[in-house]
């Protein structure tokens, strides 16, 4: 992509899944889910940055090697943003970026010197855009803009999400189209590098004229108002106190600076970027779980042979088919029923490449939108220092990332949909040939009966929550802003869809491994045996009923951390050669 990212990342130690996908074109079933439960409002539990949900996935990926070579002024991928905010890395601007920032500020200064009237610089905002503001009121105008727009409600963003929001806003400012004073930008960069971030409620944005309320809260703390995260004390405190403790003063804003801080789609984009990265991990875990279930259910490998998928050559379908084919190779269990006379399996096994494959392609489509958005200027008006122009437009409108969030939610939810169906087959003795609910002495023991109900509940919750937020709009600001994206709600919901799906796949992981226990002494393929042993290192087989909450939590952590995918990577690398013409897994 042509956009350059002007923030300097001193080091990047994160990784991204090593896979390729194409374009997604979905019917407008588009659906998403409610605010992520990890955005807890309690000042301690929700505030400290958690372990990265995809921290150990594919740590030797080609993309990671590219990220490690980034220098100031280069393009920022989604994973780079994620690394920066989880690992508290430092940010600076390239000399070229500072040059653009100074040039844009110079345009504003000359407008004021000439006494010209320009929207956002010396006029009111929105429905008050016709009101001309005198020079002695310009600072008050900008600071009042922040105060009046900081009216969000609901749970606060946890620290790592607030940092992602902050980092994206810094990136916009560093593009040199906002007109921010270089001294103000230096002030914000210092705060970011100290780990300071404002308290930002998650509700209140309609996603056009940008994410005004969340970004106003982000800016408010730097006026010395509202609350701010105190890194040393690990709690939220009055912003003025936190700034003082770190040797900083509240910032006075000049002309255009308030508007420069709040016009854009960074709330939508930052939350959806987290959902994207977690979804990329989920794609791979879903393929592993499908292979485990296929083994436990005595399914056939034949349907995954890449040769047949070349006759319907969607990229994601090809990659998924090859991956599952490899995972099922050299299995004692498969050999034990090779001549059983069974011709084909149910759709939830046989059609995994077709169902998981379109999720792969959807993710790639969404990734393209988000990485363009991450590296875009979303201000209004935009300042072009090189041509001395100030141009009003609509780059703040959130329709692109809103649609991306809705598309992503639909795709991820389908992983839960088909996973829950595989769990049903595992616990249903008439379908699996395994003990009812995967436990001996059924009746006395209920086994996996209710944990399947949990999977069904989460999947059904997703079905409601994946309704497309971006299909809605509502007129605001006296009909000046008469079409909005509702992208903030879309972004909050997709995180919940991802979270629910992580848990559904964790349930399938437990159920499939329990099924494999009942197939002993026969073993699955070596790759899947590695996953089985990983799970058994955390969760013992279920021999009699017990409280399964800790089991589910442990399995969910294995899913989220990337450990499941990491367990099979060596085996996939061993087959890293073309198979029936497919060259990547």
Task: Provide structural commentary.
The protein is mainly alpha-helical and 585 residues long. Helices cover 51% and strands 4% of the residues. It contains 22 helices and six strands. Strands 1-2 form a two-stranded antiparallel ribbon. The chain has a two-stranded antiparallel ribbon with strand order 3-4. The radius of gyration is 26 Å and the shape is elongated. The two termini are 24 Å apart.
Helix and strand composition category = mainly alpha
The rounded distance between the terminal residues' Cα atoms is 24 Å
Shape: elongated
The ordered string of helix (H) and strand (E) elements is HHHHEHHEHEEHHHHHHHHEEHHHHHHH
Structure summary, number of beta strands? 6
* Alpha carbon gyration radius: 26 Å
Number of helices, counting only DSSP H or I runs of 4 residues or more: 22
Helix content: 40-55%
Mean pLDDT level: 86
Q: How is the main sheet built? A: 2 strands, antiparallel
Q: Within the largest sheet, what's the order of strands?
A: 1-2
Percentage beta strand:
under 5%
- List low-pLDDT spans: 1-74
């Amino acid at each position: 992509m042509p956009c350059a990212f002007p923030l300097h990342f001193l080091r990047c130690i994160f990784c991204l899944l090593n896979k390729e996908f194409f374009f997604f074109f979905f019917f407008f079933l588009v659906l998403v889910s409610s605010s992520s439960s990890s955005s807890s409002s309690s000042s301690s539990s929700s505030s400290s940055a958690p372990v990265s949900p995809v921290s150990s996935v594919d740590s030797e990926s080609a993309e990671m090697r590219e990220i490690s070579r980034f220098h100031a002024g280069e393009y920022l991928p989604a994973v780079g943003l994620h690394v920066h905010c989880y690992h508290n890395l430092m940010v600076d601007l390239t000399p070229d970026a500072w040059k653009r920032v100074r040039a844009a500020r110079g345009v504003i200064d000359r407008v004021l010197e000439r006494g010209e009237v320009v929207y956002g610089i010396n006029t009111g905002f929105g429905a008050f855009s016709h009101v001309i503001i005198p020079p002695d009121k310009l600072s008050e105008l900008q600071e009042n803009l922040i105060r009046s727009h900081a009216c969000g409600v609901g749970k606060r963003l946890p620290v790592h999400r607030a940092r992602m929001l902050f980092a994206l806003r810094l990136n916009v400012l560093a593009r040199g189209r906002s007109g921010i004073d270089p001294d103000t930008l230096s002030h914000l960069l210092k705060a970011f590098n100290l780990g300071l971030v404002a308290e930002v409620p998650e509700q209140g944005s309609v996603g056009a004229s940008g994410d005004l309320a969340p970004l106003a809260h982000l800016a408010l703390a730097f006026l010395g108002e509202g609350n701010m995260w105190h890194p040393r004390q690990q709690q939220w405190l009055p912003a003025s106190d936190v700034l003082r403790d770190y040797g900083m003063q509240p910032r006075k804003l000049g002309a255009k600076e308030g508007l420069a801080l709040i016009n854009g789609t960074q709330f939508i984009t930052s939350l959806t970027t987290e959902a994207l990265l977690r979804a990329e991990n989920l794609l791979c875990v879903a393929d592993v779980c499908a292979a485990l279930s296929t083994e436990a259910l005595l399914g056939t490998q034949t349907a995954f042979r890449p040769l047949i998928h070349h006759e319907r050559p969607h990229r994601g379908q090809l990659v998924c088919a090859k991956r599952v084919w490899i995972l099922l190779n050299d299995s004692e269990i498969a050999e034990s029923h090779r001549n059983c006379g069974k011709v084909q399996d149910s759709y939830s096994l046989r059609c995994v490449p077709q169902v998981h494959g379109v999720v792969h392609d959807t993710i790639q489509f969404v990734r393209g939108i988000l990485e363009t958005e991450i590296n875009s200027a979303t201000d209004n008006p935009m300042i072009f220092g090189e041509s001395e122009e100030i141009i009003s437009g609509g780059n703040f409108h959130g329709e692109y990332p809103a649609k991306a969030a809705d598309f992503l939610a639909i795709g991820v939810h389908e992983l839960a949909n088909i996973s829950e169906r595989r769990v049903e087959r595992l616990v249903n003795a008439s379908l699996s040939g395994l003990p009812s609910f995967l436990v001996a002495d059924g009746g006395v023991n209920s086994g996996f009966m209710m944990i399947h109900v949990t999977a069904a509940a989460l999947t059904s919750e997703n079905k409601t929550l994946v309704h497309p937020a971006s299909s809605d709009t509502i007129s605001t600001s006296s009909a000046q802003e008469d079409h909005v994206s509702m992208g903030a709600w879309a972004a909050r919901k997709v995180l919940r869809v991802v979270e629910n799906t992580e848990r559904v796949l964790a349930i399938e992981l437990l159920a499939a491994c329990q099924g494999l226990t009942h197939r002993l002494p026969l073993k699955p393929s070596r790759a899947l045996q590695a996953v089985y042993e990983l799970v058994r290192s955390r969760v013992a087989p279920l021999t009699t009923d017990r409280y399964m909450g800790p089991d589910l939590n442990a399995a969910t952590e294995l899913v989220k951390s990337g450990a499941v995918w990491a367990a099979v990577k060596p085996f996939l690398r061993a087959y890293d050669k073309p198979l029936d013409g497919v060259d990547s897994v």
